Amino acid sequence: MTRTRRSLRRGIAWTAPLATAAVIGVAVAVPMAASAGTPGLAGTTPEALLAALRTTDVTHLSGQVEETARLGLPSLPGQDDTASLNWQTLVTGTHTGNLAVDGPQRQRLALLGTLAESDVVHNGSDVWTYASSTREVTHVVLPADRPDGAGTTPDPGDPMNATPLGAAQHLLAAITPTTGVSMAENTRVAGQDAYALVLTPEDAGSTIGRVVIAVDATRHVPLRVQVFGAGAPADPVFETGFTSISYDRPSAATFDFSVPAGATVTTRDRSTGAAKQPNGHTGTPAPTVLGSGWTSVVEFTPGPGALAALGPATGAQSGRSSTELLDRLLTVQPNGDRLLATALVNVLLTSDGRVFAGAVQPSVLQQASATR
Amino acid sequence: MSSSEPVAAAAAPPWRTAPHLPGAFRRLYAGEMRLVLGRRRNQALLGVLAVVPLVIGVAVRLSTPRNGDGPQFLSQIAGNGLFLVFTALTVALPFFLPLVVGVVAGDSIAGEAGTGTLRYLLAVPVTRGRLLAVKALGVASCTALAVLVVALVGLLAGAVLFGLHDVTLLSGDTVSLADGLLRTVGVVVFVVVALFGLAAGGLFVSTLTENAIAAMATTIGIAVFSALLDAVPELRPIAGALLTHHWLGFGELLRTAPDGGALLRWSLLHLAYVAVFLSLAWARLQTKDVTS
Fold first, then answer.
1. A90-121 burial by CB neighbour count: b if 16+ within 10 A, else e?
2. Which residues of chain A make contact with B248, given a CB cutoff of 8 A?
């Protein structure tokens, strides 16, 4: 009798942790289930959605963005610091950032790392960058007549490209008459009901199989951009989307930046006569865009220092330097050119020091380098 | 069940029916704290924690580090002593703090069982649930004390060696010292709550064995194992649910606009660990045969 009562009491006691775990499980699962599912939305045509996307009247928003690149590149040195603003960081792994936009003249992007952050603050004719880990500030002064940066060649290294807004802008610019435009199943991104617009390049020269843009159903803002490779269509090779979004106007203080004490400042004044240097590298010619649409190729000639960094490892640096890694990734072509192939972007380094890059098949790059 | 309750009450041992004297719980807690803080081992561990910010502060004073060197915030200490608090917490979080939590929590029940005092504790008019509550409160107090030692010694050493000034946040914006100190309080609270998860785990482990050393080692092992799992890229999808993953999340408080939702989510995760481990410890203690 006492034995059974005792074992019963033991059994009852152990239900407490089970109940606790169950309550926590439900508390986690219910919000997840609520945000899942496909919202029923009024029907629309891809053409109408495309037009709405291009003419959205949303000028200000803020939210958190998550970017993931699966280009097939190994982790490059320095990528552990997830808050770095370098392109080397953004082409591997997953990164989170806070984006605030108030019109074309004021944006702030903060890339978040553990105990680290990198910020790009654009306010009028000033563009500031700050990295908390190195406490380095760069200050770029834009031409006073073009404070929104309009008319300059897009900078491939601009971290804004990693946001849904920047990525969608580039991809919409690539649309050609042959591009297939269709709709996929409605979705929900960052708590907003969204249409899914599918762009199919239909161009053998492109490495992009299709692009899926989730468009906010009421405000027509691109909430998520997924780029699928031509070869492996299962997982997106590049994905960037809002995880939370607010359409309230960010406070004006968000876009104020004053140089913190103890920071080193590099100033690049592009306000006078230097409009042809959009990427800010002094003494470096601006990149040229060859062709148009999905198969457009960017040509640029890096400075001697940059080229050395891409050349064969000199052994000057110890450990896993980017030089050695890049050297392993580069394949030498029959004509002496070197090719860096990834799941999305291919880069051709010609023997005479020019660089051609694009989301295109290597043959397109070779053609471009031959005709120039 | 209800029909058998009078029988159970009649047959219940005196410690089940004894009235709870006012202040009894407080006295039990005070006794527990005297016991824990009186131990030379624990005093030595708190001393080690106090040394962490001192060593960092003196080292920075002797040779100013360049930007980007060493642990986070290190290069900022020379300009603002407040950052010594954050650097010391960052350095102490992976090992020193779990060590202290592990030793105190692992010892809490298993130590009593190992020295044969657990059954005497249960012989005084106190239920097993109340005993666990006192032990949990004691471990929680020691956890908070450990973090406070690091933070306060860091703050004092930082103030003396470098002075306290306006604070440059991770976002590059500068806020007043008062704002910075307020954020520091938030950082301490976040870290304490984060360590509660491990402390509760230690308390549960401590109910499983009579070998206090094994319980301490297992508790520290939980923290190390969780950090190891966190470092495996293939486990990235579940990393966010790991016990130690958000420990350094206090950095969120050092951004211009802290993400309150994220801080709340992470703290709730740590409290969920507390709830699970405490209920496990309770169930284990309820059903345990206390023989020593």
1. bbbbebbbbbbbbeeebbbbbbbbbbbbbbbb
2. 114-115
Strand, helix or coil for residue A348: strand
> What is the per-residue pLDDT across A272-284, written as a single tens digit (0 to 9) for each?
654 444 444 444 5
Task: Indicate the average pLDDT of chain A.
Answer: 80
Alpha carbons A372 and A339: distance in angstroms, whole number: 17
**pLDDT-derived band at B1, boundaries 50, 70, 90:** very low
Distance from C-alpha of A125 to C-alpha of A102, rounded to nearest angstrom: 14
Partners of B255 on chain A (C-beta within 8 Å) are 110, 112, 117
Contact B67 A258 (CB under 8 A): no
Q: How close A134 gets to chain B, by Cα (Å)? A: 5
The counts of H helices and E strands in chain A are 7, 18
Buried-state track A224-251, b at ≥16 Cβ within 10 A, e below 16: bbbbbbbeeeeebbbbbbbebbeeeebe
Do A21 and B248 make contact, defined as CB atoms within 8 angstroms? Answer: no
Cα B106 from Cα B277, distance rounded (Å):
13
Q: Among residues of chain A, what percentage have pLDDT more than 70?
A: 79
Contact in structure between B201 and B279 (CB atoms under 8 Å): no
Q: Is A173 on the interface with B (CB under 8 A)?
A: no
Nearest in space to A11 (alpha carbons), one of B130, B279, B283, B4: B283
Tell me the CA distances in angstroms from A340 to A254, A330, A359, B58, one per residue in order: 39, 5, 12, 48
Q: What's the farthest any 2 CA atoms get from each other in chain A? A: 97
CA of B70: how far to CAs of B55, B60, B64, in Å?
Answer: 14, 11, 11
Mind listing the pLDDT tens digit for each residue in B167-205?
Answer: 999 998 999 999 999 999 999 999 999 999 999 999 999
Cβ neighbourhood burial of B193 (10 Å; 0-12, 13-18, 19+): buried
What single DSSP character describes residue B50?
A: H
Residue A27: closest CA among chain B residues belongs to which residue? B272
Interface test with A, best of B168, B176, B238, B253 (most A CBs within 10 A): B168
Nearest-angstrom CA–CA distance, A226 and A39: 19
Q: B72: alpha, beta or left, given left = phi > 0 and alpha = psi -120 to 50?
A: beta
Q: A331: closest CA among A300, A362, A372, A295?
A: A362
Partner-chain contact A17 B279, CB within 8 Å = yes
Q: Yes or no: say if B208 and B285 are a contact pair by the CB < 8 Å rule.
A: no
Given a cut of 50, whether residue A52 has pLDDT beyond it is: yes
The 10s digit of each residue's pLDDT in A66-89 is 998 888 776 655 444 456 666 666
Q: Indicate whether this complex's ipTM tops 0.85.
A: no
Contact with chain A for residue B272, Cβ under 8 A = yes
**B279 contacts A260? CB cut-off 8 A:** no
Structural domains in chain A plus CATH codes: 46-255 (2.50.20.10), 287-371 (no CATH)
First to last CA, chain B: 31
Residues A250-254, mean pLDDT to the nearest whole number: 91
